[in-house]
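Milestone M4 deliverable, item 7.
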Amino acid sequence: MNFEIIAVGTELLLGQIVNTNAVYLSQRLSELGFNVYFQTVVGDNPDRLKEALRIASERADAVITTGGLGPTNDDLTKETVAEFCGLECVLCEESLERIKKRFNKQGSYMSENNIKQAYMPEGSIILQNNHGTASGAVVEHNDKIFIVLPGPPSEMKAMFEESVMPYLKTKTDGVIHSVTLREFGIGESQAEEKLKELMENQSNPTIAPYAKTGEVTFRLTAKAENVEKAKEMLVPLEKKVREILGDTIYGYGDNGSLQKTLCEILTEKGMKLATAESCTGGLLAKKITEISGSSVCFECGAVTYSNEQKIRLLGVKEETLKKYGAVSKQTALEMCEGIAKSANADIGIGITGIAGPGGGTDEKPVGLVYIGIYGEKVHKAFRFVFSGDRDMVRERSAMTALDMARRYALGIDFVDNSQK
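Output delivered:
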């Protein structure tokens, strides 16, 4: 079955908000075995929305709209879909009662405009909203399916998971089961190149890559008559992927992260970590402390922006800074050793660099970062030149440091993609 996603909202066209709904829906539909060949964004205009629905219904079996279900006069998605299908919007008493209860529970005033949200296309399947006032709907018309969802991501995602997923599973033969492998250490293009043969010859099961800063997620999906069979089909594929990508695969599942994986490893091994940061400004420590229970394995983090504090708090030698500069391999080595010894930690990480946009030279360009790691069996620093803006340089530096600590804790050699 082919889907098209139509995001409704003038604010999307003006760039005032990012269309994250389309990203989420495309991923979830793909996991269910459905195709998404087109995405459309249209403003709060019924005529243009009706034209978008016409085009979408000619090239897709099902259309999902997001947005335009609010109580104001320009929220007309539901009404426009109904009109396009030749249907009237009729009062849904159940939806009205739920809206009233929500306002009463919050102790808020319910205006007459909110009653508009209880009018639904006649004959539609009502999708209850447990996180807001706007109900969604499924309209089956002339062998086409129109699924109308709210715009706020928290409401849309919950409605999709709770109501749309069960509905769509009745529209596909068999079941879809996926596993997720999370990889860090080689980029998306390099990872895909390594998996090229597997990906070119895939049919069922399939491999789908999703990239974000510094890491790649691979979703392996199989379709079969039951979950047990689908899981069985994925076993040899997962084994091949792991063999090809090796220990760059750091995690498993949708809820993992590099920092969560590191904390789990450190906790299991009874190891402590301490960090000393300059250009990342505490981002590495922030990532670690985002994880619940990280206090078990994280001792402390120091943000030493100035040379004076590198000397005072970390024990970096003044002559090192004068001879090599704050952004140098030698300084990174002394930073990671200093914080480890000061905190009595098993692992010390030191990061120093030039995040930009200013401050770079021909010898030390923007993006130059040195990351040092210190432990009982290691005392090394690596040189990187990360591309991107200030935020990107900082993010890549922190992620690389997390991976270095993960590898050391596991006794795995660090993948040295640094530049000498």
